[in-house]
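Retro notes (design track)

What went well: tokenization of the new backbones is finally stable.
What didn't: we kept losing track of which sequence belonged to which structure.
Fix going forward: every design gets posted as structure first, then sequence, in one message. First example under the new rule, 410 residues:
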């Protein structure tokens, strides 16, 4: 499919050829009609905002991602003690806030199981929203992103309400449709605190009130669990995304599936033996398409890379960047045949480049294979990579801009 599409160059994109010439993109043409599910341009999703430049899940980070050209911003959601939805990557908040510097909360540190793993930390569910608002965000990866530590202590922890308000405000200011891409974090864990599907119902009530119950809403709801998405598919027309995790990549390019990244946690609890990998087989994709509109696989599921001990970038070190890129695994094509969009994660300028040293080259490669969207901590790089392949400045339709539900969910 990619070879056929590669021959179809769009004249409107010819001014971008000098941009492409400045980088080395492996076997990809400039401005091809990309083999996305609907032949529309892929979306760029600001992963946790602009996490490469600002502490994650802050209004400042989301704003920067939008200013860099992101089409969607991603708030991971957890619940406070009083049932308010806030943007944090995990229920554990010790690594992303200054809670440890608040002596009044010292006795809140405790040990809990999340997806079967014991964590000793402070948990969002032990704080009211008013208490959360006394905390400030900090950089989660200070060793990797020391520049971001300059912003420690400056930004509040946002609510879902505030993220939605920002997206709507920026949509009006820019004339672009800025969508949101919330993730329901650890549904099983939150069920233990609040009851079954209480979290999901809160999310739907808010999203339906703000955007309506329509597949055309600029919204995707994502989860690594399955049961909550199946429940949501009966309650909403908003687009749903089945996330697919893994532990690591083996030297031969196969995917390593080790707990707690082996299975959706609700499968673990229910005794369902299927793994994340099983959801991506032909049978698994048939199952997923009954309740979801898209899959969100970790990127090594889409492109096979092999560790063959060759220092390809010549830096004297053997890292994941040196892996040999074999090519696409065929999963994108299989998912598209089932009518499922493919949004993959996470692209970073400073880490995780399996087979690539240049993040722009890496993102362009995946986009050229036909992914319908990608998550990146560096929205500017994602937008630049897309610009080497397609011009969206003239109102080109984006992938998944309006749902194509039909009778797909049943």
């Amino acid at each position: 499919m990619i070879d056929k599409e590669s021959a179809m160059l769009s004249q409107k994109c010819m001014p971008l050829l000098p941009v492409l010439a400045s980088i080395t993109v492996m076997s990809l043409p400039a401005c091809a009609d990309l083999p996305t599910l609907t032949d529309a341009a892929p979306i760029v999703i600001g992963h946790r905002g602009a996490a490469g430049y600002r502490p994650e899940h802050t209004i400042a980070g989301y704003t920067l991602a939008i200013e860099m050209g992101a089409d969607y911003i991603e708030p991971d959601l957890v619940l406070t003690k009083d049932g308010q939805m806030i943007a944090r990557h995990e229920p554990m908040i010790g690594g992303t806030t200054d809670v440890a510097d608040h002596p009044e909360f010292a006795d809140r540190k405790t040990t809990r199981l999340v997806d079967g793993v014991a964590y000793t930390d402070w948990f969002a569910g032990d704080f009211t929203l008013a208490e959360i608002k006394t905390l400030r965000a900090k950089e989660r990866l200070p060793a990797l992103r020391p520049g971001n530590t300059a912003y420690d202590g400056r930004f509040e922890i946002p609510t879902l309400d505030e993220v939605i308000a920002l997206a709507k405000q920026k949509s009006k200011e820019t004339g672009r449709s800025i969508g949101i891409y919330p993730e329901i974090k650890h549904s099983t864990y939150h069920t233990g605190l609040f009851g079954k599907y209480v979290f999901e119902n809160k999310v739907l009530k808010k999203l339906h009130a703000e955007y309506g119950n329509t597949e055309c809403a600029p919204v995707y709801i994502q989860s690594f669990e399955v049961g909550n998405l199946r429940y949501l598919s009966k309650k909403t027309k908003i687009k749903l995304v089945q996330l697919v995790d893994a532990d690591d990549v083996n030297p031969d390019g196969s995917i390593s599936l080790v707990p707690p990244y082996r299975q959706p946690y609700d499968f673990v609890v229910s005794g369902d033996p299927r793994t994340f990998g099983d959801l991506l087989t032909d049978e698994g994709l048939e199952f997923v398409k009954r309740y979801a509109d898209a899959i969100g696989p970790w990127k090594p599921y889409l492109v096979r890379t092999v560790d063959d001990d060759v220092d390809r970038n010549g830096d004297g070190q053997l890292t994941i960047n040196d892996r040999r890129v074999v090519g696409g695994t065929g999963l994108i094509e299989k998912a598209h045949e089932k009518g499922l969009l493919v949004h993959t994660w996470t692209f970073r300028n400073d880490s995780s480049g399996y087979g690539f040293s240049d993040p722009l080259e890496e993102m362009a490669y995946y986009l050229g294979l036909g992914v319908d969207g990608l998550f990146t901590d560096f929205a500017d790089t994602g937008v630049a990579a897309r610009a080497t392949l397609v011009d969206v400045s003239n109102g080109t339709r984006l992938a998944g801009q309006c749902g194509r539900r039909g009778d797909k969910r049943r």
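Added context from the reviewer: The two ends are 29 Å apart (CA to CA).
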